[in-house]
Design brief:
Elements (H helix, E strand, L loop, with lengths): L2 E7 L5 H10 L5 E4 L2 E7 H10 L5 E10 L3 H9 L3 H4 L8 E6 L6 H20 L13 E6 L2 E7 L21 H10 L8 E3 L6 H10 L20 H14 L8 E5 L2 H14 L5 E5 L12 E5 L4 H4 L2 H16 L4 E7 L4 H5 L5 E7 L2 E8 L26
Parallel strand pairs: 5-6, 8-9, 8-11, 9-10, 11-12
Antiparallel strand pairs: 1-3, 1-4, 2-3, 4-7, 6-7, 12-14, 13-14
Helix pairs in contact: 2-8, 3-5, 6-7
Protein backbone atom coordinates (compact mmCIF):
# COMPACT_ATOMS: atom_id res chain seq x y z
CA UNK A 1 0.00 0.00 0.00
CA UNK A 2 1.38 3.40 -1.00
CA UNK A 3 2.34 5.95 1.65
CA UNK A 4 2.23 9.72 1.26
CA UNK A 5 3.82 12.72 2.93
CA UNK A 6 1.12 14.82 4.55
CA UNK A 7 0.76 18.15 6.32
CA UNK A 8 -1.81 18.87 9.01
CA UNK A 9 -2.09 22.64 9.37
CA UNK A 10 -2.91 24.26 12.69
CA UNK A 11 -3.62 27.62 14.27
CA UNK A 12 -0.56 29.19 15.88
CA UNK A 13 -0.08 27.73 19.34
CA UNK A 14 -1.95 24.48 18.68
CA UNK A 15 0.71 22.59 16.73
CA UNK A 16 1.63 20.45 19.73
CA UNK A 17 -1.99 19.37 20.18
CA UNK A 18 -2.21 18.32 16.53
CA UNK A 19 1.03 16.38 16.97
CA UNK A 20 -0.47 14.64 20.02
CA UNK A 21 -3.61 13.74 18.03
CA UNK A 22 -1.54 12.29 15.20
CA UNK A 23 0.53 10.25 17.64
CA UNK A 24 -2.71 8.83 19.09
CA UNK A 25 -3.65 7.81 15.53
CA UNK A 26 -0.38 5.91 15.18
CA UNK A 27 1.75 8.57 13.46
CA UNK A 28 4.64 8.96 15.89
CA UNK A 29 7.16 9.74 13.12
CA UNK A 30 6.37 13.40 12.57
CA UNK A 31 7.92 16.84 12.30
CA UNK A 32 6.34 19.80 14.09
CA UNK A 33 6.81 23.11 12.28
CA UNK A 34 5.35 26.59 12.56
CA UNK A 35 1.63 26.24 11.89
CA UNK A 36 1.78 22.63 10.72
CA UNK A 37 2.81 19.05 11.45
CA UNK A 38 4.31 16.73 8.81
CA UNK A 39 3.77 12.98 8.87
CA UNK A 40 3.29 9.99 6.57
CA UNK A 41 0.25 7.79 6.06
CA UNK A 42 -1.28 5.29 3.65
CA UNK A 43 -4.75 5.54 2.10
CA UNK A 44 -6.58 4.33 5.21
CA UNK A 45 -4.42 6.60 7.35
CA UNK A 46 -5.50 9.59 5.25
CA UNK A 47 -9.16 8.71 5.73
CA UNK A 48 -8.71 8.16 9.49
CA UNK A 49 -6.86 11.45 9.95
CA UNK A 50 -9.56 13.29 8.01
CA UNK A 51 -12.26 11.84 10.26
CA UNK A 52 -10.47 12.10 13.61
CA UNK A 53 -8.36 15.28 13.65
CA UNK A 54 -10.15 17.66 16.00
CA UNK A 55 -7.66 20.53 16.31
CA UNK A 56 -6.05 20.68 12.84
CA UNK A 57 -7.41 23.13 10.27
CA UNK A 58 -6.62 21.21 7.07
CA UNK A 59 -5.00 18.08 5.75
CA UNK A 60 -2.76 18.36 2.69
CA UNK A 61 -0.77 15.92 0.58
CA UNK A 62 2.74 17.04 -0.31
CA UNK A 63 3.26 16.62 -4.06
CA UNK A 64 6.78 18.04 -4.11
CA UNK A 65 9.29 20.66 -2.96
CA UNK A 66 12.11 22.36 -4.85
CA UNK A 67 14.02 25.68 -5.05
CA UNK A 68 12.34 28.27 -7.27
CA UNK A 69 13.99 31.66 -7.64
CA UNK A 70 12.64 32.37 -11.13
CA UNK A 71 9.38 31.66 -12.92
CA UNK A 72 11.22 29.26 -15.25
CA UNK A 73 12.46 27.25 -12.26
CA UNK A 74 8.94 27.25 -10.83
CA UNK A 75 7.38 26.07 -14.11
CA UNK A 76 9.95 23.32 -14.66
CA UNK A 77 9.74 22.12 -11.06
CA UNK A 78 5.94 21.95 -11.05
CA UNK A 79 5.71 20.26 -14.45
CA UNK A 80 8.13 17.57 -13.31
CA UNK A 81 5.95 16.45 -10.39
CA UNK A 82 3.75 13.31 -10.65
CA UNK A 83 0.43 15.07 -11.27
CA UNK A 84 -0.84 12.40 -13.65
CA UNK A 85 -0.57 9.81 -10.86
CA UNK A 86 -2.81 11.90 -8.61
CA UNK A 87 -5.21 13.81 -10.85
CA UNK A 88 -7.86 12.59 -13.25
CA UNK A 89 -7.84 14.00 -16.78
CA UNK A 90 -11.02 16.00 -16.04
CA UNK A 91 -9.94 17.28 -12.60
CA UNK A 92 -11.03 20.80 -11.71
CA UNK A 93 -7.85 22.64 -10.72
CA UNK A 94 -8.17 25.79 -8.60
CA UNK A 95 -4.74 27.03 -7.52
CA UNK A 96 -4.07 29.13 -4.43
CA UNK A 97 -0.74 30.59 -3.47
CA UNK A 98 1.27 32.53 -0.95
CA UNK A 99 4.76 33.97 -0.94
CA UNK A 100 6.90 34.83 2.11
CA UNK A 101 10.44 36.19 1.77
CA UNK A 102 10.64 34.88 -1.80
CA UNK A 103 11.99 36.45 -4.96
CA UNK A 104 8.69 35.62 -6.66
CA UNK A 105 6.47 38.15 -4.93
CA UNK A 106 3.49 38.29 -7.31
CA UNK A 107 1.12 35.64 -6.00
CA UNK A 108 -1.29 35.87 -8.99
CA UNK A 109 1.63 35.34 -11.36
CA UNK A 110 2.87 32.40 -9.30
CA UNK A 111 -0.59 30.82 -9.37
CA UNK A 112 -0.78 31.28 -13.14
CA UNK A 113 2.58 29.62 -13.74
CA UNK A 114 1.69 26.69 -11.48
CA UNK A 115 -1.67 26.16 -13.19
CA UNK A 116 -0.08 26.24 -16.66
CA UNK A 117 2.63 23.77 -15.62
CA UNK A 118 0.09 21.29 -14.19
CA UNK A 119 -2.19 21.58 -17.23
CA UNK A 120 0.75 21.08 -19.58
CA UNK A 121 1.87 17.99 -17.64
CA UNK A 122 -1.61 16.43 -17.73
CA UNK A 123 -2.21 17.36 -21.37
CA UNK A 124 1.02 15.70 -22.36
CA UNK A 125 0.16 12.50 -20.44
CA UNK A 126 -3.40 12.28 -21.83
CA UNK A 127 -2.54 13.63 -25.28
CA UNK A 128 -5.03 16.46 -25.06
CA UNK A 129 -4.84 20.10 -26.06
CA UNK A 130 -7.57 21.27 -23.68
CA UNK A 131 -8.45 19.81 -20.28
CA UNK A 132 -12.19 19.88 -19.52
CA UNK A 133 -11.94 20.48 -15.71
CA UNK A 134 -15.47 19.08 -15.31
CA UNK A 135 -14.57 16.51 -12.66
CA UNK A 136 -13.89 16.58 -8.94
CA UNK A 137 -12.22 19.59 -7.37
CA UNK A 138 -8.50 19.14 -6.70
CA UNK A 139 -7.36 22.31 -4.95
CA UNK A 140 -3.62 22.92 -5.33
CA UNK A 141 -1.65 25.18 -2.99
CA UNK A 142 1.76 26.61 -3.85
CA UNK A 143 3.64 28.04 -0.88
CA UNK A 144 6.87 29.94 -1.48
CA UNK A 145 9.03 30.57 1.56
CA UNK A 146 12.57 31.84 1.15
CA UNK A 147 12.60 30.60 -2.46
CA UNK A 148 11.57 27.05 -1.58
CA UNK A 149 8.37 26.03 -3.36
CA UNK A 150 6.08 23.52 -1.67
CA UNK A 151 3.23 22.09 -3.77
CA UNK A 152 0.39 20.44 -1.89
CA UNK A 153 -2.99 18.97 -2.77
CA UNK A 154 -5.78 19.88 -0.38
CA UNK A 155 -7.57 16.78 0.92
CA UNK A 156 -10.16 18.50 3.06
CA UNK A 157 -12.30 20.86 0.99
CA UNK A 158 -14.19 22.89 3.56
CA UNK A 159 -11.93 23.39 6.58
CA UNK A 160 -11.85 20.68 9.23
CA UNK A 161 -13.72 22.99 11.60
CA UNK A 162 -16.80 22.38 9.46
CA UNK A 163 -18.11 19.45 11.45
CA UNK A 164 -21.62 19.71 10.03
CA UNK A 165 -23.49 20.48 13.25
CA UNK A 166 -23.21 24.27 13.44
CA UNK A 167 -25.34 26.11 10.87
CA UNK A 168 -26.19 29.23 12.90
CA UNK A 169 -23.77 31.24 15.01
CA UNK A 170 -23.74 34.36 17.11
CA UNK A 171 -21.29 37.24 17.04
CA UNK A 172 -17.55 36.41 16.78
CA UNK A 173 -18.01 32.62 16.88
CA UNK A 174 -15.25 30.38 18.17
CA UNK A 175 -14.04 27.86 15.60
CA UNK A 176 -14.75 24.24 16.38
CA UNK A 177 -11.05 23.39 15.98
CA UNK A 178 -10.06 26.09 18.49
CA UNK A 179 -12.73 24.91 20.95
CA UNK A 180 -11.41 21.36 20.63
CA UNK A 181 -7.90 22.71 21.19
CA UNK A 182 -8.96 24.39 24.44
CA UNK A 183 -10.43 21.13 25.74
CA UNK A 184 -7.34 19.23 24.65
CA UNK A 185 -4.99 21.70 26.34
CA UNK A 186 -6.95 21.24 29.56
CA UNK A 187 -6.25 17.47 29.40
CA UNK A 188 -9.93 16.86 30.15
CA UNK A 189 -10.99 13.22 29.66
CA UNK A 190 -14.57 13.34 30.90
CA UNK A 191 -13.82 12.09 34.41
CA UNK A 192 -15.05 15.24 36.15
CA UNK A 193 -17.49 18.04 35.28
CA UNK A 194 -16.75 20.59 32.57
CA UNK A 195 -18.69 23.85 32.49
CA UNK A 196 -18.88 26.69 29.98
CA UNK A 197 -20.88 29.46 31.71
CA UNK A 198 -20.78 31.78 28.66
CA UNK A 199 -21.46 29.18 26.01
CA UNK A 200 -22.49 31.34 23.03
CA UNK A 201 -23.47 28.85 20.34
CA UNK A 202 -22.28 25.91 22.45
CA UNK A 203 -19.08 25.03 20.63
CA UNK A 204 -16.83 24.33 23.64
CA UNK A 205 -19.40 22.12 25.37
CA UNK A 206 -20.18 20.22 22.17
CA UNK A 207 -16.52 19.63 21.32
CA UNK A 208 -15.90 18.44 24.87
CA UNK A 209 -18.78 15.97 24.61
CA UNK A 210 -17.57 14.70 21.22
CA UNK A 211 -14.10 14.07 22.68
CA UNK A 212 -15.34 12.37 25.85
CA UNK A 213 -17.73 10.13 23.89
CA UNK A 214 -15.02 9.27 21.33
CA UNK A 215 -17.13 10.50 18.43
CA UNK A 216 -15.10 11.31 15.32
CA UNK A 217 -15.60 15.01 14.49
CA UNK A 218 -15.63 14.34 10.72
CA UNK A 219 -18.18 11.55 10.79
CA UNK A 220 -21.06 13.82 9.69
CA UNK A 221 -19.34 15.45 6.71
CA UNK A 222 -17.58 14.66 3.45
CA UNK A 223 -14.11 15.57 2.17
CA UNK A 224 -12.79 16.51 -1.27
CA UNK A 225 -10.38 13.57 -1.10
CA UNK A 226 -13.28 11.10 -1.11
CA UNK A 227 -13.57 11.81 -4.84
CA UNK A 228 -9.86 11.41 -5.62
CA UNK A 229 -9.19 8.38 -7.79
CA UNK A 230 -5.97 7.37 -5.99
CA UNK A 231 -7.78 7.04 -2.64
CA UNK A 232 -10.01 3.92 -2.83
CA UNK A 233 -13.58 4.03 -1.59
CA UNK A 234 -12.80 1.00 0.58
CA UNK A 235 -10.34 3.06 2.64
CA UNK A 236 -13.04 5.60 3.52
CA UNK A 237 -15.59 2.88 4.24
CA UNK A 238 -13.18 1.13 6.60
CA UNK A 239 -12.33 4.35 8.41
CA UNK A 240 -15.98 5.33 8.83
CA UNK A 241 -16.97 1.88 10.08
CA UNK A 242 -14.18 2.00 12.64
CA UNK A 243 -15.30 5.47 13.76
CA UNK A 244 -18.91 4.37 14.19
CA UNK A 245 -17.84 1.36 16.25
CA UNK A 246 -15.73 3.46 18.61
CA UNK A 247 -18.45 5.91 19.66
CA UNK A 248 -19.36 5.59 23.35
CA UNK A 249 -22.80 7.16 23.36
CA UNK A 250 -23.75 5.40 26.59
CA UNK A 251 -20.87 6.87 28.61
CA UNK A 252 -22.05 9.12 31.43
CA UNK A 253 -20.29 12.48 31.37
CA UNK A 254 -20.99 15.82 33.01
CA UNK A 255 -20.80 18.65 30.51
CA UNK A 256 -22.76 21.81 31.25
CA UNK A 257 -23.41 24.92 29.15
CA UNK A 258 -25.15 28.10 30.23
CA UNK A 259 -25.57 31.65 29.03
CA UNK A 260 -27.63 34.65 30.07
CA UNK A 261 -28.77 35.17 26.46
CA UNK A 262 -31.81 33.06 25.51
CA UNK A 263 -30.80 33.11 21.83
CA UNK A 264 -27.39 31.64 22.74
CA UNK A 265 -29.06 28.91 24.76
CA UNK A 266 -31.38 28.10 21.85
CA UNK A 267 -28.38 27.90 19.48
CA UNK A 268 -26.56 25.60 21.85
CA UNK A 269 -29.57 23.27 22.07
CA UNK A 270 -29.91 23.25 18.28
CA UNK A 271 -26.23 22.52 17.63
CA UNK A 272 -25.98 19.87 20.35
CA UNK A 273 -28.90 18.03 18.78
CA UNK A 274 -27.35 18.24 15.32
CA UNK A 275 -24.03 16.97 16.71
CA UNK A 276 -25.80 14.02 18.31
CA UNK A 277 -24.71 14.92 21.87
CA UNK A 278 -27.79 16.72 23.22
CA UNK A 279 -28.40 14.02 25.81
CA UNK A 280 -24.83 14.40 27.12
CA UNK A 281 -24.95 18.16 27.79
CA UNK A 282 -27.02 19.96 30.38
CA UNK A 283 -27.99 23.34 28.90
CA UNK A 284 -29.66 26.11 30.92
CA UNK A 285 -30.22 29.83 30.73
CA UNK A 286 -28.37 31.47 33.60
CA UNK A 287 -26.12 34.47 34.23
CA UNK A 288 -22.51 33.95 35.20
CA UNK A 289 -23.11 35.13 38.76
CA UNK A 290 -25.38 32.12 39.41
CA UNK A 291 -22.68 29.57 38.69
CA UNK A 292 -22.42 27.44 41.84
CA UNK A 293 -21.83 23.77 40.98
CA UNK A 294 -22.49 21.11 43.57
CA UNK A 295 -19.32 19.11 42.87
CA UNK A 296 -16.18 19.90 44.82
CA UNK A 297 -13.92 19.78 41.77
CA UNK A 298 -14.25 20.42 38.06
CA UNK A 299 -13.12 22.49 35.11
CA UNK A 300 -14.39 25.73 33.63
CA UNK A 301 -13.47 26.31 29.97
CA UNK A 302 -14.85 29.44 28.38
CA UNK A 303 -14.33 32.18 25.80
CA UNK A 304 -15.95 35.26 27.37
CA UNK A 305 -17.07 38.28 25.37
CA UNK A 306 -14.62 41.09 24.75
CA UNK A 307 -15.10 44.74 23.84
CA UNK A 308 -15.47 44.14 20.10
CA UNK A 309 -18.39 41.82 20.82
CA UNK A 310 -20.15 43.72 23.59
CA UNK A 311 -19.20 47.13 22.25
CA UNK A 312 -18.50 48.52 25.72
CA UNK A 313 -15.14 48.30 27.50
CA UNK A 314 -16.49 48.93 31.05
CA UNK A 315 -19.10 46.20 30.57
CA UNK A 316 -16.57 43.51 29.73
CA UNK A 317 -14.25 44.65 32.50
CA UNK A 318 -17.12 44.28 34.96
CA UNK A 319 -17.80 40.81 33.55
CA UNK A 320 -14.17 39.78 34.08
CA UNK A 321 -14.27 41.00 37.69
CA UNK A 322 -17.42 38.99 38.22
CA UNK A 323 -15.74 35.96 36.69
CA UNK A 324 -12.83 36.25 39.10
CA UNK A 325 -15.23 36.45 42.03
CA UNK A 326 -17.20 33.40 40.86
CA UNK A 327 -14.08 31.27 40.30
CA UNK A 328 -12.68 32.48 43.62
CA UNK A 329 -15.58 30.95 45.52
CA UNK A 330 -15.17 27.56 43.78
CA UNK A 331 -12.27 25.78 45.50
CA UNK A 332 -11.36 22.62 43.65
CA UNK A 333 -12.29 24.09 40.28
CA UNK A 334 -9.73 24.98 37.61
CA UNK A 335 -10.48 27.59 34.95
CA UNK A 336 -9.17 28.02 31.41
CA UNK A 337 -10.21 31.31 29.82
CA UNK A 338 -9.49 32.33 26.21
CA UNK A 339 -9.56 36.11 25.97
CA UNK A 340 -8.23 38.88 23.74
CA UNK A 341 -8.42 41.63 26.39
CA UNK A 342 -4.88 42.68 27.34
CA UNK A 343 -5.87 43.58 30.93
CA UNK A 344 -7.93 40.47 31.63
CA UNK A 345 -5.83 39.30 34.59
CA UNK A 346 -6.03 42.68 36.31
CA UNK A 347 -9.82 42.72 36.11
CA UNK A 348 -10.08 39.01 36.97
CA UNK A 349 -8.22 39.75 40.19
CA UNK A 350 -5.15 37.52 40.00
CA UNK A 351 -2.50 36.46 37.51
CA UNK A 352 -2.89 33.20 35.65
CA UNK A 353 -0.80 30.23 36.68
CA UNK A 354 0.03 29.68 33.01
CA UNK A 355 -0.53 31.61 29.81
CA UNK A 356 -0.50 30.41 26.23
CA UNK A 357 -0.62 32.66 23.17
CA UNK A 358 -3.21 31.54 20.63
CA UNK A 359 -4.87 33.02 17.58
CA UNK A 360 -8.64 32.82 17.21
CA UNK A 361 -8.76 33.51 13.49
CA UNK A 362 -6.61 36.63 13.08
CA UNK A 363 -7.26 37.79 16.63
CA UNK A 364 -4.37 37.41 19.05
CA UNK A 365 -5.56 35.92 22.34
CA UNK A 366 -4.18 34.47 25.53
CA UNK A 367 -5.34 31.28 27.16
CA UNK A 368 -5.28 32.08 30.88
CA UNK A 369 -4.97 28.87 32.89
CA UNK A 370 -5.85 28.91 36.59
CA UNK A 371 -5.15 25.85 38.68
CA UNK A 372 -7.74 24.72 41.15
CA UNK A 373 -7.38 26.22 44.61
CA UNK A 374 -7.47 23.44 47.24
CA UNK A 375 -10.80 23.22 49.01
CA UNK A 376 -10.88 24.09 52.74
CA UNK A 377 -10.49 21.11 55.04
CA UNK A 378 -13.75 19.88 56.49
CA UNK A 379 -12.18 19.51 59.94
CA UNK A 380 -11.50 23.24 59.87
CA UNK A 381 -15.22 23.81 60.04
CA UNK A 382 -15.61 25.19 56.52
CA UNK A 383 -17.62 23.28 53.92
CA UNK A 384 -17.08 23.77 50.14
CA UNK A 385 -19.79 25.84 48.51
CA UNK A 386 -22.58 23.79 46.95
CA UNK A 387 -25.46 25.02 44.85
CA UNK A 388 -26.85 24.95 41.37
CA UNK A 389 -25.96 26.03 37.88
CA UNK A 390 -28.59 28.68 37.30
CA UNK A 391 -32.05 27.58 38.33
CA UNK A 392 -32.02 24.18 36.68
CA UNK A 393 -31.07 21.98 39.60
CA UNK A 394 -27.77 20.71 40.97
CA UNK A 395 -24.78 19.99 38.79
CA UNK A 396 -24.52 16.20 38.72
Amino acid sequence: MATYELIATAAFGLESQVAWELKALGHADQMVEHGRVRFRADEVGIARASLWLRVADRLQLVVGEFPARTFDELYDGVRGLPWADLLARDAALPVDGKSVKSMLTSVPAVQGVVKKAIVDALARRHRLTVLPETGARHRVLVALREDLATLTLDLTGDGLHRRGYRDLVGAAPLKETMAAGLVSLARWKGDWPLVDPMCGSGTIAIEAALQALDIAPGLRRTFDAERFRFLPVAAWEAAREEARSRARQDREIRVHASDRDPEAVALTVRHARQAGVASAIRIVRAPLRDLAPAETRGLIVTNPPYAERLGDGPEVESLYRQMGQVVGRLPGWAAHVLCAHESFERHFGRPADRRRKLYNGNLRCQLYQYRAVPAPREDAGVEPDGGTLGGGGPLR
